[in-house]
C-alpha cells in the first residue's frame, strides 16, 4: 500500500513545483484499488497530482472526511477530471459551515457543485464495509474533543448552531502489517476515533495512523495535547503515526515526545509505504 500526500500545509523540502496549502488530500494505492481521501482546498490537487504522477482519472472512489473547504474545496475540479469515481460523504456534509474564529462568520463549507459531480455523491449514514476499505461514521465517545470546535458552526444564516461534525468519516484499510487509519481533522476527537476503530476491528491491531489530529497551537493547552498524545501512545503501542494539517507545532512536539521515532510529520509530496 502506498499513501501519497497530494495536499498538506507544509511545503516539500526540495520540490518547489509542489504547492502546499492549508488542507489535506491523500491518494491511496493498494493492490486492488486506488482511492482519494479528501481533495484539499481549491487550486492544488491537479498540479500536485500531475507532478507526483498520480492519475486522478483512475481513482475508483473518493472519501470526504468532512464538509470543510480545506478538505473538499477541489471536489468539483476532481469530479470534472474523473468521470466515474463514487464520492462518499457523511450525512450533512453539504450543509452551510462557518468559522467565527476571527469574529464575523466566514463561510468554510463545500463550494457549490456541478450536477455531474453532485449526482455521484453518496451519503454514508452508517459504517460501511466495502470490498477494499471501510468507512466509519462520526465517532462516538466522550473523550476530549478539540477546543477549536467551539468556533465552528453549521446551518443557514439565522439558524447557525455549534457543529457536532456528524458528517466526519474515518477511512480504514487493511494492510499487511495491520490496520491503516486515515483521519481528516479528528473533530470528533482522535482518542474517540481510535476507540471506535479498535472496537469495530476488535481482533486486529492498528499499524498506522495518517492525517490531521486537530491539536492546534493557541486552541488547546500544551498540557492537554501532551495528555492526548500519551493516551494515544498507550492505545497504539506499535503504530506508526504520520500527523499534519491541523496538527500544530505544539501538537507535533507532544506526539514526538509520546511516540519518539514512531512519529513523522507530514508534508506535501510525501510518500508513505506500508
Task: Give an account of the 3D structure.
This protein is of the alpha/beta class and about 270 residues long. The chain has a single domain, classed as Ribonuclease Z/Hydroxyacylglutathione hydrolase-like (Metallo-beta-lactamase, Chain A), CATH 3.60.15.10. Helix content is about 20%, strand content about 25%. It contains seven helices and 18 strands. It has a seven-stranded mixed sheet with strand order 8-5-4-3-2-1-18. Strands 9-10-13-14-15-16-17 form a seven-stranded mixed sheet, covered by helices on one side. A four-stranded antiparallel sheet has the order 7-6-11-12, with no helix packed on it. Helix 1 links the parallel strand 3 and strand 4. The longest helix has 14 residues. It is globular and about 45 Å long. The model has no long low-confidence stretch (mean pLDDT about 95).
Work out the helix count.
7
The CATH homology group name: Ribonuclease Z/Hydroxyacylglutathione hydrolase-like
Strand order of the largest sheet: 8-5-4-3-2-1-18
| Sequence of secondary-structure elements | EEEHEHHEEEHEEEEEEEHEHEHEE
Beta fraction = 25-35%
- Main sheet record: 7 strands, mixed
State the assembly state of the protein chains.
single chain
**CATH-defined architecture:** 4-Layer Sandwich
Distance between the termini: 5 Å
In a nutshell, what does this entry contain?
By secondary structure, the chain is α/β, with parallel strands linked by helices.
Amino acid at each position: 500500500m502506498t499513501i501519497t500526500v497530494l495536499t498538506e500545509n507544509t511545503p516539500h523540502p526540495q520540490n518547489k513545483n509542489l504547492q502546499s496549502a492549508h488542507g489535506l488530500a491523500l491518494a491511496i494505492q493498494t493492490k486492488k484499488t486506488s482511492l482519494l481521501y479528501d481533495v484539499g482546498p481549491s487550486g492544488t490537487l491537479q498540479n500536485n497530482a500531475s507532478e507526483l504522477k498520480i492519475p486522478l482519472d483512475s481513482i475508483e472512489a473518493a472519501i470526504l472526511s468532512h464538509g470543510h473547504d480545506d478538505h473538499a474545496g477541489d471536489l468539483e475540479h476532481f469530479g470534472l477530471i474523473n468521470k466515474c469515481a463514487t464520492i462518499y460523504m457523511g450525512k450533512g456534509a453539504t450543509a452551510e459551515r462557518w468559522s467565527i474564529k476571527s469574529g464575523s462568520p466566514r463561510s468554510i463549507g463545500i463550494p457549490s457543485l456541478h450536477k455531474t459531480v453532485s449526482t455521484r455523491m453518496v451519503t454514508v449514514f452508517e459504517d460501511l464495509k466495502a470490498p477494499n476499505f471501510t468507512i466509519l461514521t462520526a465517532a462516538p465517545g466522550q473523550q476530549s474533543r478539540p477546543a477549536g470546535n467551539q468556533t465552528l458552526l453549521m446551518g443557514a444564516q439565522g439558524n447557525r448552531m455549534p457543529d457536532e461534525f456528524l458528517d466526519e468519516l474515518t477511512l480504514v484499510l487493511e494492510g499487511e502489517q495491520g490496520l491503516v487509519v486515515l483521519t481528516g481533522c479528528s473533530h470528533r476527537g482522535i482518542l474517540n476515533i481510535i476507540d471506535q476503530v479498535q472496537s469495530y476491528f476488535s481482533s486486529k491491531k492498528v499499524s498506522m495512523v495518517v492525517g490531521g489530529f486537530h491539536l492546534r497551537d493557541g486552541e488547546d493547552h500544551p498540557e492537554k495535547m501532551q495528555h492526548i498524545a500519551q493516551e494515544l501512545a498507550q492505545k497504539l503501542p506499535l503504530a506508526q503515526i504520520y500527523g499534519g494539517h491541523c496538527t500544530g507545532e505544539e501538537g507535533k512536539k507532544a506526539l514526538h515526545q509520546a511516540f519518539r521515532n514512531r512519529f513523522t510529520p507530514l508534508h506535501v509530496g510525501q510518500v508513505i509505504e506500508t
